[in-house]
Design goal:
Cyclin A, domain 1; three-stranded antiparallel beta sheet; mainly alpha; extended; N-terminal domain of TfIIb
Length: 334
C-alpha cells in the first residue's frame, strides 16, 4: 500500500508539471504575439539585445521592451560532456510518446543517485515500485491507444528512414484525429499510416502510398481511404506533391552527381510552366526527368535502374521521357 501511495503522489506531480508546462507555453505564445511588430513603424525586424536586456526595432531604433527575462542557463558549457553534466532538466517534450515524455521512470539498475549499490533489503521494494510504475503509466484507454499507436508509428518511420520532424508532425496529426474521435470504427494501423503519409506531404519529404503500405500492416487502398477521410475532417488542405520533391531521394539512390539533379530540376520546371505534369504521377515524371538528365550530362542510367529506384515501370518512364523530350524540344542521342 505504501508503494501505491508513493506512485499516486508521483502521478499527481506529473499532472501538475504538465499543467505548469502548458501554462508557460500559453504565456510564451502571448508574449511572442505582442512582440511581432514595431508599434512605431510596423516593421517586424525586432532584435533582442541580450547585453542590455532590450527589444529593439532595427528599422527605427525604438526600444519596445526592456528588462526582459533571460530564459537561458546561467552556466556555460564548452563541450558536450559539460553540457550534459550541468543540465538540470531531462529530455525535451515530445509528441511521439503518449505522455509527452513528462512521466517519471525508475531505472532498472539497482543503484542510487550517487552510483552506490542498493542493499538487498530494499531491492524487493524497488522491484515492486517498478512494476506499479509500468502499470499506472498507462492509466486509461486513451493513453493505451496512444501508446500502441505511437510505438507503431515509430516502427514505420524507422523502417522508412524518416527524420524527427516528420515523426512529430505525424504524432500531432494522429492526436488531433484522436481528439475528434475519428479513430472509432477504423484500425489504429490504418490511421497511423495515414497520419504518417500526411506528415510526409506536409514536410515536403514525400513517400508514396506503396512505400507506406510496405512497412504497415494494412493495404494501400485502406491507407488512401483513411487519409482522405482524416485530411477532410481535419482540414489539412495539402497541395499535390511536386515531382521535384522526389529528385533528391532518387538521385541519391542512383548515386548521381549534383549536376544531374540540377538539370532534372530545370527540366521539371520547364515542364511545369507548360503544364506537362498535370494529371501525371509525380514519381513517373521525376523518373523520366532524371533519365533525360543522365543522358544529357553523360552519366547514363538504364530505364530499368531508374525504374527500380523510383518504384515505377519501364513503360511509364519510356512514355513520359518521350513526351517531355518532344514537348520541350530536347534532342536525345540514344
Amino acid at each position: 500500500m505504501q508503494e501505491i501511495e508513493k506512485l499516486k503522489v508521483l502521478q499527481s506531480d506529473r499532472e501538475s508539471l504538465k499543467s505548469r508546462t502548458k501554462q508557460k507555453e500559453l504565456e510564451r505564445k502571448a508574449e511572442n504575439a505582442t512582440e511581432t511588430a514595431c508599434p512605431e513603424c510596423g516593421s517586424r525586424q525586432l532584435v533582442h539585445d541580450h547585453e542590455r536586456a532590450e527589444l529593439v526595432c532595427q528599422s527605427c531604433g525604438l526600444v519596445i521592451d526592456n528588462d526582459f527575462i533571460d530564459r537561458g542557463p546561467e552556466w556555460r558549457a564548452f563541450n558536450a560532456d559539460q553540457r550534459t553534466n550541468r543540465a538540470r532538466t531531462g529530455a525535451p517534450m515530445t509528441l511521439t510518446i503518449h505522455d509527452k515524455g513528462l512521466s517519471t521512470m525508475i531505472d532498472w539498475r539497482n543503484r542510487d543517485f550517487y552510483g552506490r549499490a542498493i542493499s538487498s533489503k530494499n531491492r524487493a521494494q524497488f522491484y515492486r515500485l517498478r512494476k506499479w510504475q509500468r502499470r499506472i503509466r498507462v492509466s486509461n484507454a486513451i493513453e493505451r491507444n496512444l501508446a500502441f499507436a505511437l510505438s507503431e508509428m515509430d516502427r514505420m518511420a524507422s523502417a522508412l528512414g524518416l527524420p524527427r520532424n516528420i515523426r512529430e508532425t505525424a504524432a500531432r496529426v494522429y492526436r488531433d484525429a484522436a481528439d475528434k474521435n475519428l479513430i472509432r470504427g477504423r484500425s489504429i494501423e490504418g490511421v497511423v499510416a495515414a497520419a504518417l503519409y500526411a506528415a510526409c506531404r506536409q514536410c515536403s519529404v514525400p513517400r508514396t502510398l506503396d512505400e507506406i503500405a510496405e512497412v504497415s500492416r494494412v493495404s494501400r487502398k485502406e491507407i488512401g481511404r483513411t487519409y482522405r477521410f482524416v485530411s477532410r475532417e481535419l482540414g489539412l488542405n495539402l497541395l499535390p506533391t511536386s515531382p521535384i520533391d522526389y529528385l533528391p531521394r532518387f538521385c541519391s539512390g542512383l548515386k548521381l552527381k549534383g549536376e544531374v539533379q540540377s538539370r532534372a530540376v530545370e527540366i521539371l520546371r520547364q515542364a511545369d510552366e507548360r503544364e506537362l505534369t498535370n494529371g501525371r504521377a509525380p514519381t513517373g515524371v521525376a523518373a523520366a526527368a532524371i533519365y533525360i538528365a543522365t543522358i544529357l550530362c553523360g552519366e547514363r542510367r538504364t530505364q530499368r535502374e531508374v525504374a527500380e529506384v523510383a518504384g515505377v515501370t519501364e513503360v511509364t518512364i519510356r512514355n513520359r521521357y518521350k513526351e517531355l523530350a518532344e514537348k520541350l524540344g530536347i534532342e536525345l542521342i540514344i
